[in-house]
Design goal:
With about 120 residues, the protein is an all-alpha fold. Helices cover about 70% and strands about 0% of the residues. The N and C termini lie far apart (about 85 Å). Keywords: Signal.
C-alpha cells in the first residue's frame, strides 16, 4: 500500500509540474518579452536621439512615424524592446539590417522631407 501511495504522489507532482514547464518553454520560444507598443518604441527613439544631441532634428512626430514601421515589421520583440529602452542595439545581424532598411526607406516620410 505504501508503494502505491508513493507512485500516486510522484505522478501527481509530475502532472502539476507540466503546466509550469509548458509555460516556461512557450516564454523561451518567444524570447520571454512581449512586443512593445508603438508609443513605447517612439519614446525610446526620442530618448536615444535626445541623448545623442539630435533631439532638434529627430522630433516626437518623426519618432512616432518610424516606430509605427518598426513595430509593424518582422523585427524581433527583443530588438523592439532595446529600441523602446532608448538603446541602439539589435538582437542579431538580421534585425540590424532590417532596422537600417526601415529607417532608410521611410526617412523622407517620417522626417517631413516628402516632396509636395
Amino acid at each position: 500500500m505504501m508503494n502505491f501511495d508513493r507512485k500516486l504522489r510522484t505522478r501527481s507532482r509530475l502532472l502539476l509540474a507540466l503546466p509550469a514547464a509548458a509555460l516556461a518553454l512557450s516564454l523561451a520560444a518567444c524570447g520571454g518579452a512581449s512586443r512593445p507598443s508603438q508609443a513605447d518604441v517612439a519614446s525610446g527613439l526620442t530618448q536615444y536621439f535626445e541623448s545623442a544631441g539630435q533631439g532638434d532634428i529627430f522630433d516626437e512626430k518623426a519618432a512616432d512615424c518610424f516606430a509605427g514601421y518598426l513595430v509593424d515589421s518582422e523585427l524581433s520583440n527583443e530588438t523592439l524592446n532595446y529600441l523602446a529602452n532608448g538603446e541602439d542595439k539589435q538582437a542579431n545581424q538580421s534585425d540590424k539590417d532590417l532596422t537600417t532598411k526601415i529607417l532608410q526607406d521611410n526617412m523622407s516620410e517620417c522626417m517631413g522631407m516628402e516632396e509636395e
